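To make this tangible, this section ends with a sequence with its C-alpha cells:
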Amino acid sequence: MAVTALVLRSHGMEGLLTAVPALRGLRRGGLRVVLACPPELSELAALTGAVDRLLPARGLTPLAWPGPGEDEALHPLLPEIAVNLHGRGPQSHRVLLDLGPRRLWAYAHEAVPRVAGPRWDPSEPGVQRWCRLVQWYGVPADPDDLRLPTPMVASPAPGAVVIHPGAGETTLRWPPDRFATVARTLADEGLPVVVTGSRRERPMALLVATRAVLPPQIVLAGRTSLRELCALVAGARLVIGADPGMARLAMSYGTPSVTVSAPDGRRHRLLHETPGGGLPADDVIRAAFAALGAGVR
C-alpha cells in the first residue's frame, strides 16, 4: 500500500495553484496525497491530478483526521508523512504535528527544532519555494509543471474577454468605474465581455456592467461553479482583473492576462496599482489591446 502524505495548503485558489508542481512531484513519487484545503477548492484540486483525497481545512485551525469507521478511504489511522506547503511555521508545523505523523517535511524553524528542513527564503516565488522543499526531501518536482487540463464541461462564454473586478483583499481592488470603462471600450470594439466573481462579489460585478451600459446577462459572478470558471478561463481570449488567483488560473491555461498588482509571467502583463487607486483605465486598455494583438489567441 502506498505511503500516505497529508499536505497542508489551506489558502485560496492562488495558494493551491502555486503548490501544483510540488503536489504532482509527491504523487509521481508514489505517495498517496491527502490535501488539507478549503472544501470549496475540491473541483480545482481534482483537476491537478495529484490529489487522492481532501481533508477540509480552514487556515490554521486544528485538523481532524477521521477515526475508524468515519472515512475508510482516509486510512491508515494517521498519516505517515505530513508535508507543510502552507507556510514557514511554527503554527502550521504544529497543526500538522498535532496529528502525530511519523515524519514532517517542512522548512526549518527555530521554534520547532525537531524539524530539520531547508532554510526559508522570503524572496523566493511560491512555486519554486514548494518545489525546493519537496526536492530537499528527495522528491523531484518541476516548477514549470503548472498547466491544468480543461474541465469536461462547456464554457459559459467561449472566446470571451473575462473581467474579474473582485480580489481577495480589498486593498488590491481597482475601482469599479475603471473596470466599467475597460469593459465598455472592449465591447465597443465588438469583443464579447463577461464579468466574473464570487456570489459575494456579484453586486460589484453588476455595478461594473451597469456603469459600462452592458446587459446583466454578461455578469457570471455567483453563477458558475469553480469547474465552469476553469472552462471559461481556458477558452477565454483574455483575463483582466486584480485577483492573484485569477492571474494564476490564467497562467495555468496559457490564457493571456492583464493584471493589476498580481504575479507576472510570460504572456501576462502586470500593471502596478498605487495606493489610492491611481492606475488609469487607459493603461489597462492599452495593455489589453496589446495582449489581444499579440497573436496569443
